[in-house]
From TrEMBL:
A GO MF label: nuclease activity
A Pfam family that the UniProt record links to this protein: UVR
Protein name (database record): BFN domain-containing protein
Entries under InterPro entries matching the protein: BFN_sf (IPR036104), Bi_nuclease_dom (IPR003729), UVR_dom (IPR001943), UVR_dom_sf (IPR036876)
Keywords from the UniProt entry: DNA damage, SOS response
Biological process annotations from GO: SOS response
Keyword DNA damage: yes
Ranges of residues in domain BFN: 3-135
Cited PANTHER family: VON HIPPEL-LINDAU DISEASE TUMOR SUPPRESSOR, VON HIPPEL-LINDAU PROTEIN
Gene3D superfamilies listed in its UniProt record: Bifunctional nuclease domain (3.10.690.10)
Tree of life domain: Bacteria
């Protein structure tokens, strides 16, 4: 399957769910974006490394890096390889110089380790095509059904509901309207959850 290289585009605090963050990955030399909702601890671990801050004590991901390097293990690649019922699946591609091993990991943990090992981040084309957002000018459009009102075929990393946003009670027309509003506001985590609800409706 065709792999697509990704970069970290942004990390923003969720204004709709306490403790959640939107991690946005972008296609290298492309316009597609892959938003993933992650927890506060993983978001902190990613941000600290990106900003090159040094915590007073090693974080869990720092400890993992030190442990791995002590035994001459390097992470060379992160692969987001599947998306099932709203959950992204990732794995670490590791080597000790002689053999290559693949280790399953949560996507948020995998990205936190990728920034520490300078590992390349990849996903498969089918994941980016179904769960990504494409930039057209200053607007964000979902890739599926681009000629019509966007209807989603993707989902996000965390399935918890957003307090105060009971999307299950809304009609498809109302969901699409809220989706457009979220996209216009660049509220990635909100758009992702509305997209998840639309995906459930479409697959029912």
């Amino acid at each position: 399957m065709k792999k697509v290289k990704l970069d970290i585009i942004g990390l923003s605090y969720s204004q709709t769910q306490s403790g959640a963050y939107a991690l946005v990955l972008g296609e290298v030399n492309g316009r597609r974006r892959l938003p993933i909702i992650i927890g506060a601890f993983e978001a902190q671990a990613i941000a600290i490394e990106i900003e090159k801050m040094v915590p007073s004590r090693p974080l869990t991901h720092d400890l993992f890096k030190t442990f791995a390097q002590t035994y001459n293990v390097q992470i060379t690649e992160i692969l987001i390889y599947n998306l099932v019922e709203g959950v992204f699946f990732a794995k670490l591609i590791c080597t000790d110089g002689e053999s290559i091993q693949e280790i399953d990991a949560r996507t948020s943990d995998a990205i936190a380790l990728a920034v520490r090992f300078n590992a390349t981040i990849y996903t498969y084309e089918f994941i980016l095509s179904s769960a990504g957002i494409v930039i057209e000018g200053n607007d964000f459009l979902f890739l599926e059904n681009m000629d019509n009102i966007p209807k989603d075929q993707g989902a996000e990393d965390i399935g918890a509901s957003i307090p105060g946003a009971n999307y299950k009670s809304l009609s498809i027309e109302e969901l699409n309207q809220k989706l457009q509003e979220a996209i216009a506001e660049e509220a990635y985590e909100k758009a992702a959850r509305i997209r998840d609800e639309l995906n459930k409706r479409n697959s029912a």
